[in-house]
Amino acid sequence: MKKILVILLSFLMIFSMVGCGDKTKKDDKHIEKLTVSFVPSKDADVIMQAASGNEELGYRSLAQIIIDGLAARGYTVDEVEVSVGTSYAAVGEGMVSGTIDIGLIPASTYVLYSDGVELLVEALRYGVAGEDGVVIDPALGIDPWNAGKTTNAEGMATGYASLIYVNVTTEIGQNLYEKAQAKSLTWEDVNAATWFVCSSTSSAGYVYPSLWINNTFGEGAGNEKRTVVNLQNVIPDGSYANMMESLLTGGCDVTVGYADVRKDAASTTAFEAAYPELAAEGKTVWDIIKVIAVSDYIMNDTVSVTKKNPKMTAELIKALQEVFIELGNTEEGRAAVKPYSHMGYVVGKDSDYDSTRQANALFQK
User: What is the DSSP string of 173-205?
Assistant: First the structure.
Protein backbone atom coordinates (compact mmCIF):
# COMPACT_ATOMS: atom_id res chain seq x y z
CA MET A 1 0.00 0.00 0.00
CA LYS A 2 2.85 2.37 0.91
CA LYS A 3 4.49 1.64 -2.47
CA ILE A 4 1.27 2.56 -4.27
CA LEU A 5 1.05 5.85 -2.34
CA VAL A 6 4.67 6.68 -3.17
CA ILE A 7 4.06 6.01 -6.87
CA LEU A 8 0.88 8.12 -6.85
CA LEU A 9 2.67 10.99 -5.12
CA SER A 10 5.47 10.79 -7.67
CA PHE A 11 3.00 11.05 -10.54
CA LEU A 12 1.26 13.98 -8.86
CA MET A 13 4.60 15.81 -8.50
CA ILE A 14 5.45 15.18 -12.16
CA PHE A 15 2.07 16.43 -13.36
CA SER A 16 2.36 19.42 -11.04
CA MET A 17 5.74 20.30 -12.51
CA VAL A 18 4.41 19.92 -16.05
CA GLY A 19 1.46 22.15 -15.15
CA CYS A 20 3.79 24.80 -13.77
CA GLY A 21 5.85 24.61 -16.92
CA ASP A 22 2.77 25.18 -19.07
CA LYS A 23 1.73 28.11 -16.87
CA THR A 24 5.18 29.68 -17.18
CA LYS A 25 5.10 29.27 -20.93
CA LYS A 26 1.64 30.81 -21.03
CA ASP A 27 2.78 33.71 -18.85
CA ASP A 28 5.66 34.34 -21.27
CA LYS A 29 3.03 35.04 -23.90
CA HIS A 30 1.10 37.40 -21.64
CA ILE A 31 2.30 40.99 -21.46
CA GLU A 32 0.54 43.42 -19.19
CA LYS A 33 1.88 46.56 -20.83
CA LEU A 34 4.16 47.73 -23.63
CA THR A 35 5.25 51.35 -23.87
CA VAL A 36 5.95 52.97 -27.24
CA SER A 37 7.48 56.42 -27.62
CA PHE A 38 8.16 58.71 -30.59
CA VAL A 39 10.93 61.31 -30.59
CA PRO A 40 9.49 64.83 -31.01
CA SER A 41 10.70 65.44 -34.57
CA LYS A 42 7.22 66.79 -35.35
CA ASP A 43 4.62 68.48 -33.19
CA ALA A 44 3.44 66.04 -30.52
CA ASP A 45 -0.25 66.63 -31.32
CA VAL A 46 0.35 65.78 -34.99
CA ILE A 47 2.19 62.57 -34.09
CA MET A 48 -0.45 61.46 -31.57
CA GLN A 49 -3.33 62.27 -33.91
CA ALA A 50 -1.85 59.95 -36.54
CA ALA A 51 -1.04 57.24 -33.99
CA SER A 52 -4.62 57.35 -32.65
CA GLY A 53 -6.06 55.95 -35.89
CA ASN A 54 -8.90 57.21 -38.05
CA GLU A 55 -12.42 56.04 -37.25
CA GLU A 56 -13.89 57.44 -40.47
CA LEU A 57 -11.53 55.30 -42.55
CA GLY A 58 -11.75 52.38 -40.16
CA TYR A 59 -8.06 52.63 -39.31
CA ARG A 60 -6.98 51.19 -35.97
CA SER A 61 -4.66 53.02 -33.64
CA LEU A 62 -0.95 52.13 -33.56
CA ALA A 63 -1.54 50.59 -30.13
CA GLN A 64 -4.32 48.36 -31.44
CA ILE A 65 -2.30 47.36 -34.51
CA ILE A 66 0.50 46.18 -32.22
CA ILE A 67 -1.92 44.38 -29.87
CA ASP A 68 -3.67 42.61 -32.75
CA GLY A 69 -0.42 41.82 -34.54
CA LEU A 70 1.07 40.21 -31.46
CA ALA A 71 -2.20 38.37 -30.78
CA ALA A 72 -1.91 36.75 -34.20
CA ARG A 73 1.49 35.48 -33.03
CA GLY A 74 0.21 34.01 -29.78
CA TYR A 75 0.71 36.96 -27.44
CA THR A 76 -1.85 38.55 -25.17
CA VAL A 77 -1.08 42.22 -24.53
CA ASP A 78 -3.34 44.03 -22.07
CA GLU A 79 -2.22 47.55 -22.96
CA VAL A 80 0.06 49.44 -25.34
CA GLU A 81 0.77 52.98 -24.21
CA VAL A 82 1.90 55.38 -26.96
CA SER A 83 3.52 58.74 -26.19
CA VAL A 84 5.80 61.42 -27.59
CA GLY A 85 8.97 62.08 -25.62
CA THR A 86 9.84 65.55 -24.38
CA SER A 87 13.19 65.30 -26.21
CA TYR A 88 15.27 62.85 -28.22
CA ALA A 89 17.43 62.27 -25.15
CA ALA A 90 14.38 61.58 -22.97
CA VAL A 91 13.30 58.75 -25.28
CA GLY A 92 16.81 57.30 -25.45
CA GLU A 93 17.27 57.46 -21.69
CA GLY A 94 13.82 55.96 -21.13
CA MET A 95 14.73 53.00 -23.30
CA VAL A 96 18.06 52.54 -21.52
CA SER A 97 16.31 52.57 -18.14
CA GLY A 98 13.59 50.20 -19.34
CA THR A 99 10.66 52.58 -18.85
CA ILE A 100 10.15 52.70 -22.63
CA ASP A 101 9.97 49.35 -24.42
CA ILE A 102 9.79 50.45 -28.07
CA GLY A 103 11.13 53.68 -29.52
CA LEU A 104 10.77 55.22 -32.96
CA ILE A 105 14.12 56.99 -32.96
CA PRO A 106 16.59 58.38 -35.53
CA ALA A 107 19.85 56.65 -36.32
CA SER A 108 21.94 59.08 -34.26
CA THR A 109 19.81 58.45 -31.15
CA TYR A 110 19.99 54.69 -31.70
CA VAL A 111 23.79 54.85 -31.87
CA LEU A 112 24.09 57.17 -28.87
CA TYR A 113 22.07 54.81 -26.66
CA SER A 114 22.91 51.46 -28.29
CA ASP A 115 24.38 50.03 -25.08
CA GLY A 116 20.83 49.78 -23.76
CA VAL A 117 18.89 49.68 -27.03
CA GLU A 118 18.56 46.98 -29.68
CA LEU A 119 17.64 47.51 -33.32
CA LEU A 120 14.25 46.14 -34.28
CA VAL A 121 13.69 47.36 -37.87
CA GLU A 122 14.90 50.11 -40.20
CA ALA A 123 12.47 52.56 -41.77
CA LEU A 124 12.05 52.80 -45.53
CA ARG A 125 11.42 55.96 -47.51
CA TYR A 126 11.30 56.58 -51.25
CA GLY A 127 14.77 56.74 -52.74
CA VAL A 128 16.21 58.85 -55.55
CA ALA A 129 16.50 57.31 -59.00
CA GLY A 130 18.38 58.06 -62.17
CA GLU A 131 16.66 58.37 -65.52
CA ASP A 132 16.33 54.58 -65.62
CA GLY A 133 14.04 54.71 -62.57
CA VAL A 134 16.38 52.59 -60.44
CA VAL A 135 17.31 53.83 -56.96
CA ILE A 136 20.87 55.18 -57.08
CA ASP A 137 23.27 53.38 -54.77
CA PRO A 138 25.48 56.00 -53.07
CA ALA A 139 28.31 53.47 -53.01
CA LEU A 140 28.62 53.83 -56.81
CA GLY A 141 30.18 57.28 -56.42
CA ILE A 142 29.51 60.45 -58.42
CA ASP A 143 28.89 59.08 -61.94
CA PRO A 144 25.20 58.07 -61.55
CA TRP A 145 24.40 61.50 -60.09
CA ASN A 146 25.96 63.26 -63.08
CA ALA A 147 24.47 61.07 -65.79
CA GLY A 148 21.27 63.09 -66.18
CA LYS A 149 18.11 64.09 -64.41
CA THR A 150 17.28 62.41 -61.11
CA THR A 151 13.74 61.65 -59.99
CA ASN A 152 11.76 60.35 -57.04
CA ALA A 153 12.06 56.59 -57.21
CA GLU A 154 9.24 54.10 -56.90
CA GLY A 155 11.65 51.93 -54.94
CA MET A 156 12.46 52.30 -51.27
CA ALA A 157 15.72 52.87 -49.45
CA THR A 158 16.87 52.63 -45.83
CA GLY A 159 18.74 55.92 -46.09
CA TYR A 160 20.12 58.61 -48.35
CA ALA A 161 23.33 60.44 -49.10
CA SER A 162 24.55 63.99 -48.82
CA LEU A 163 25.84 65.33 -52.14
CA ILE A 164 28.48 67.99 -52.65
CA TYR A 165 27.63 70.25 -55.59
CA VAL A 166 29.52 72.65 -57.89
CA ASN A 167 28.53 74.88 -60.81
CA VAL A 168 30.55 73.82 -63.86
CA THR A 169 29.93 77.09 -65.69
CA THR A 170 32.47 78.69 -63.34
CA GLU A 171 36.21 78.17 -63.53
CA ILE A 172 36.50 76.90 -59.97
CA GLY A 173 33.49 74.62 -60.34
CA GLN A 174 34.74 73.11 -63.60
CA ASN A 175 38.18 72.56 -62.10
CA LEU A 176 36.77 70.80 -59.03
CA TYR A 177 34.48 68.67 -61.18
CA GLU A 178 37.27 67.55 -63.50
CA LYS A 179 39.50 66.65 -60.57
CA ALA A 180 36.66 64.76 -58.89
CA GLN A 181 36.15 62.73 -62.05
CA ALA A 182 39.88 62.02 -62.17
CA LYS A 183 39.88 61.21 -58.43
CA SER A 184 42.63 63.77 -57.92
CA LEU A 185 40.92 66.28 -55.61
CA THR A 186 43.18 67.63 -52.88
CA TRP A 187 42.60 69.45 -49.62
CA GLU A 188 44.10 72.54 -51.19
CA ASP A 189 41.48 72.38 -53.96
CA VAL A 190 38.46 72.19 -51.68
CA ASN A 191 39.91 74.57 -49.09
CA ALA A 192 40.43 77.29 -51.71
CA ALA A 193 36.73 77.24 -52.62
CA THR A 194 33.92 79.15 -50.90
CA TRP A 195 31.43 76.74 -49.29
CA PHE A 196 27.81 77.41 -48.33
CA VAL A 197 26.49 74.99 -45.69
CA CYS A 198 23.54 74.49 -43.33
CA SER A 199 23.61 74.74 -39.55
CA SER A 200 25.94 72.43 -37.65
CA THR A 201 23.05 70.16 -36.61
CA SER A 202 22.08 69.28 -40.21
CA SER A 203 23.06 65.74 -41.23
CA ALA A 204 23.06 66.30 -45.00
CA GLY A 205 23.98 69.97 -44.86
CA TYR A 206 26.89 69.86 -42.43
CA VAL A 207 27.68 66.65 -40.48
CA TYR A 208 28.04 64.17 -43.35
CA PRO A 209 29.90 66.60 -45.64
CA SER A 210 32.27 67.04 -42.68
CA LEU A 211 32.59 63.26 -42.43
CA TRP A 212 33.47 63.10 -46.14
CA ILE A 213 36.09 65.85 -45.72
CA ASN A 214 37.65 64.07 -42.74
CA ASN A 215 37.65 60.63 -44.37
CA THR A 216 39.09 61.99 -47.64
CA PHE A 217 41.54 64.67 -46.55
CA GLY A 218 41.76 64.40 -42.76
CA GLU A 219 42.11 61.42 -40.46
CA GLY A 220 41.11 59.03 -43.23
CA ALA A 221 44.17 60.17 -45.20
CA GLY A 222 46.52 60.04 -42.22
CA ASN A 223 46.28 63.75 -41.43
CA GLU A 224 44.82 65.70 -38.54
CA LYS A 225 41.05 65.93 -38.28
CA ARG A 226 39.47 68.17 -40.91
CA THR A 227 35.81 69.13 -41.14
CA VAL A 228 33.74 72.06 -42.37
CA VAL A 229 35.14 73.90 -39.35
CA ASN A 230 38.60 73.82 -40.94
CA LEU A 231 37.61 75.26 -44.32
CA GLN A 232 38.87 78.81 -44.73
CA ASN A 233 35.87 80.19 -46.65
CA VAL A 234 32.50 79.07 -45.27
CA ILE A 235 29.07 80.73 -45.40
CA PRO A 236 27.02 79.16 -42.55
CA ASP A 237 23.39 78.47 -41.68
CA GLY A 238 21.87 78.35 -45.15
CA SER A 239 18.66 76.74 -46.31
CA TYR A 240 18.82 74.30 -49.22
CA ALA A 241 16.89 76.67 -51.49
CA ASN A 242 19.10 79.70 -50.90
CA MET A 243 22.27 77.60 -50.96
CA MET A 244 21.40 76.27 -54.43
CA GLU A 245 20.42 79.74 -55.61
CA SER A 246 23.79 81.06 -54.38
CA LEU A 247 25.64 78.32 -56.26
CA LEU A 248 23.73 79.18 -59.44
CA THR A 249 24.40 82.91 -59.15
CA GLY A 250 28.07 82.78 -58.13
CA GLY A 251 27.66 83.49 -54.42
CA CYS A 252 29.58 80.34 -53.55
CA ASP A 253 31.71 77.71 -55.28
CA VAL A 254 30.51 74.61 -53.43
CA THR A 255 27.32 73.72 -51.61
CA VAL A 256 25.92 70.60 -50.00
CA GLY A 257 22.56 68.94 -49.48
CA TYR A 258 20.51 65.80 -49.42
CA ALA A 259 20.21 63.69 -52.53
CA ASP A 260 18.93 65.36 -54.59
CA VAL A 261 18.34 69.07 -53.99
CA ARG A 262 18.36 69.66 -57.76
CA LYS A 263 14.96 68.04 -58.16
CA ASP A 264 13.32 70.54 -55.80
CA ALA A 265 11.08 73.07 -57.57
CA ALA A 266 13.10 75.92 -56.02
CA SER A 267 16.24 74.69 -57.80
CA THR A 268 14.53 74.73 -61.19
CA THR A 269 13.11 78.20 -60.54
CA ALA A 270 16.53 79.53 -59.51
CA PHE A 271 18.18 77.96 -62.58
CA GLU A 272 15.64 79.45 -65.00
CA ALA A 273 16.06 82.89 -63.41
CA ALA A 274 19.87 82.74 -63.53
CA TYR A 275 20.21 81.11 -66.98
CA PRO A 276 17.17 82.02 -69.12
CA GLU A 277 19.06 81.42 -72.38
CA LEU A 278 20.12 77.92 -71.34
CA ALA A 279 16.59 77.20 -70.14
CA ALA A 280 15.26 78.33 -73.53
CA GLU A 281 17.60 75.83 -75.17
CA GLY A 282 16.07 73.05 -73.11
CA LYS A 283 18.89 72.83 -70.59
CA THR A 284 18.12 72.10 -66.95
CA VAL A 285 19.76 72.53 -63.57
CA TRP A 286 21.31 69.06 -64.01
CA ASP A 287 23.35 70.32 -66.97
CA ILE A 288 25.33 72.82 -64.93
CA ILE A 289 25.12 71.70 -61.29
CA LYS A 290 27.27 68.61 -60.89
CA VAL A 291 28.22 66.36 -57.99
CA ILE A 292 31.85 66.11 -56.90
CA ALA A 293 31.36 63.84 -53.86
CA VAL A 294 28.87 61.50 -52.24
CA SER A 295 28.80 61.08 -48.47
CA ASP A 296 28.44 57.90 -46.48
CA TYR A 297 24.88 56.65 -46.12
CA ILE A 298 22.66 58.67 -43.77
CA MET A 299 20.39 56.01 -42.30
CA ASN A 300 16.66 56.57 -41.91
CA ASP A 301 14.92 56.24 -38.54
CA THR A 302 14.85 53.02 -36.59
CA VAL A 303 12.27 51.24 -34.53
CA SER A 304 14.29 49.95 -31.60
CA VAL A 305 13.59 48.12 -28.37
CA THR A 306 14.97 48.31 -24.87
CA LYS A 307 17.45 45.72 -23.63
CA LYS A 308 16.28 46.28 -20.05
CA ASN A 309 12.84 44.65 -20.16
CA PRO A 310 13.14 40.91 -19.36
CA LYS A 311 10.00 40.34 -21.42
CA MET A 312 11.90 41.48 -24.53
CA THR A 313 12.95 37.97 -25.48
CA ALA A 314 14.32 36.90 -28.86
CA GLU A 315 10.91 35.41 -29.62
CA LEU A 316 9.08 38.65 -28.81
CA ILE A 317 11.58 40.71 -30.80
CA LYS A 318 11.00 38.47 -33.84
CA ALA A 319 7.23 38.84 -33.40
CA LEU A 320 7.52 42.63 -33.15
CA GLN A 321 9.69 42.73 -36.27
CA GLU A 322 6.97 40.87 -38.14
CA VAL A 323 4.29 43.19 -36.74
CA PHE A 324 6.11 46.35 -37.87
CA ILE A 325 6.96 44.94 -41.30
CA GLU A 326 3.30 43.99 -41.71
CA LEU A 327 2.26 47.44 -40.46
CA GLY A 328 4.49 49.13 -43.04
CA ASN A 329 2.88 47.18 -45.85
CA THR A 330 -0.61 48.60 -45.24
CA GLU A 331 -2.16 52.03 -45.73
CA GLU A 332 -3.55 51.84 -42.22
CA GLY A 333 -0.14 51.16 -40.70
CA ARG A 334 1.64 53.84 -42.71
CA ALA A 335 -1.06 56.33 -41.67
CA ALA A 336 -0.25 55.61 -38.01
CA VAL A 337 3.35 56.76 -38.54
CA LYS A 338 2.66 59.33 -41.28
CA PRO A 339 4.39 62.28 -39.54
CA TYR A 340 7.64 60.29 -39.79
CA SER A 341 7.14 59.56 -43.53
CA HIS A 342 7.89 55.88 -42.98
CA MET A 343 6.79 53.87 -46.00
CA GLY A 344 7.75 50.45 -44.69
CA TYR A 345 10.23 48.56 -42.54
CA VAL A 346 12.93 45.96 -43.01
CA VAL A 347 15.13 44.00 -40.63
CA GLY A 348 18.62 45.50 -40.54
CA LYS A 349 21.83 45.02 -38.62
CA ASP A 350 23.83 47.10 -36.17
CA SER A 351 26.79 47.49 -38.56
CA ASP A 352 24.54 49.53 -40.87
CA TYR A 353 25.12 52.37 -38.39
CA ASP A 354 28.92 52.38 -38.39
CA SER A 355 29.04 55.62 -40.39
CA THR A 356 26.49 57.10 -37.98
CA ARG A 357 28.90 56.31 -35.15
CA GLN A 358 31.70 58.03 -37.03
CA ALA A 359 29.51 61.07 -37.62
CA ASN A 360 28.44 61.20 -33.96
CA ALA A 361 32.04 61.00 -32.81
CA LEU A 362 33.35 63.55 -35.30
CA PHE A 363 32.53 66.61 -33.22
CA GLN A 364 33.06 64.98 -29.83
CA LYS A 365 36.85 64.70 -30.09
Answer: HHHHHHHHHTT---HHHHHHS-EE---TT-III
